[in-house]
From TrEMBL:
The keyword Mitochondrion appears for this protein: no
Keywords, sorted A to Z: Iron, Metal-binding
Residues in coiled coil: none
InterPro entries linked to this entry: Hyd_form_HypD, HypD_1, HypD_2_sf
Family assignment from sequence similarity: Belongs to the HypD family.
Keyword Iron tagged: yes
The protein, known as: Hydrogenase maturation factor
Pfam families given in the database record: HypD
Listed GO biological process terms: protein maturation
Record NCBIfam families: hypD (TIGR00075)
Gene3D superfamilies, per database record: 6.10.20.100, HypD, alpha/beta domain 2
């Protein structure tokens, strides 16, 4: 397929793998911060193409995986109300809360609808004025423009029965938290290309400067990732630490300024709790004062409740690059896609799901 096959070309892929092997002189640890990149790395065996000196670790690049348990519990509570139509992306349906998940709510008669875009939820609200329609707005900066547009349009249309349960998270603060940790081993980053398509590259410059770490904005196909690794290793080997853009066919330094303006209008920056990691300052978005009437937490007067992570699950350490999925004793044993202990085994972008699907026979 044009524009995909050329980035999966075996000959070009091998050339980049060989170039990396010729370039590297010492061990380096590089983290990709995107679940899509994680799945490509595992699916196409990219780690196996690299010299032993290069270790790839997987970061908190799956927004479904980092949505905290208490937020999932709130979604379950709202979805259980008889007068609610609860809308969500499909990959949130099976993410476990503290006691249940959204799929079980639907099995008990709840009106849950998987949608492809939050704008579908706005249409559902307009067509069902007798019902409260709630959209579960999760994701990184990538999904924020569409979620912001849904709220913007709902206000413009005067919809009183539409609200959003917001659990947006931001990538640069998470990278900062990883770099600030005393346990950090990451020496270079592959930044998420789709996030930077929206937000641009400028937010990463201060991280590269402050922590003296190379950051390469990277695409999602095998050749993209190997090019990104090559660029990152080249910087590591020569002692430089700048932001480079491998994904130039999609990413501009300024990003999508119209999308950024809409995000700034609808959302405000807040501290955000990350599943398995904890609260990271200035790492999330909530609705701005102008759009606060569309906040589902306020509309349904949801109480805050302390929730505990599953003690067997090591997904928090996987999300911080401190463990690989196979390091978890539960992986493939008591934790499977059919019976997940954590979100990293459920999501289509989760590292545990990737290992289970593509490498299970090699790691269990």
């Amino acid at each position: 397929m044009k524009y995909i096959d050329e980035y999966r070309d075996p000959q070009s892929t091998r050339k980049y793998a060989e170039a990396i092997a010729q370039l590297v002189t010492r061990p380096w640890t590089i983290m990709e911060v995107c679940g899509g990149q994680t799945h490509s790395i595992v699916r196409f065996g990219i780690q196996d193409l690299l010299p032993d000196e290069i270790e790839l670790v997987h970061g908190p690049g799956c927004p479904v995986c980092v949505t905290p348990v208490d937020m999932v519990d709130k979604a379950i509570e709202i979805a259980s109300y008889s007068d609610v139509i609860f809308c969500s992306f499909g990959d949130m349906m099976r993410v476990p809360g503290s006691k249940s998940d959204l799929t079980r709510v639907r099995a008990r008669g709840g009106d849950l609808r998987a949608v492809y875009t939050p704008l579908d939820a706005v249409k559902i609200a307009a067509a069902n004025p007798q019902k409260q329609v709630v959209f579960f707005a999760v994701g990184f900066e990538t999904t924020a423009p569409a979620n912001a547009m849904a709220v913007y349009l709902a206000k413009k249309q005067g919809l009183k029965n539409f609200s959003v349960l917001v659990s947006h998270v931001l990538v640069p603060p998470a990278m900062k938290a990883i770099l600030s940790s005393p346990d950090n081993t990451v020496q270079g980053f592959l930044a998420a290309g789709h996030v930077c398509t929206v937000m641009g590259t400028h937010a990463y410059t201060s991280l590269a400067d402050t922590y003296h770490v190379p950051i390469v904005v990277t695409g999602f196909e095998p050749l993209d990732i190997l090019q990104g690794i090559y660029m990152c290793v080249r910087q590591l080997e020569d002692g430089s630490a700048t932001v480079e853009n491998q994904y130039e066919r999609a990413v501009q330094d300024d990003g999508n300024t119209q999308a950024q303006d809409l995000i700034e209008k609808v959302f405000r920056v807040i501290p955000r709790k990350w599943r398995g990691i904890g609260t990271i300052p200035e790492s999330g978005w909530a609705l701005s004062d102008e759009y606060s009437s569309f906040d589902a937490q306020q509309r349904f007067k949801l109480a805050e409740a302390a929730t505990e992570e599953h003690t067997e699950c090591l997904s928090g350490k996987v999300l911080q690059g401190l463990k690989k999925p196979a390091d978890c004793p539960a992986f493939g044993v008591t934790c499977t896609p059919e019976n997940p202990l954590g979100a990293t085994m459920v999501s289509g972008e989760g590292a545990c799901a990737a290992y289970y699907r593509y490498r299970k026979e090699r790691v269990v």
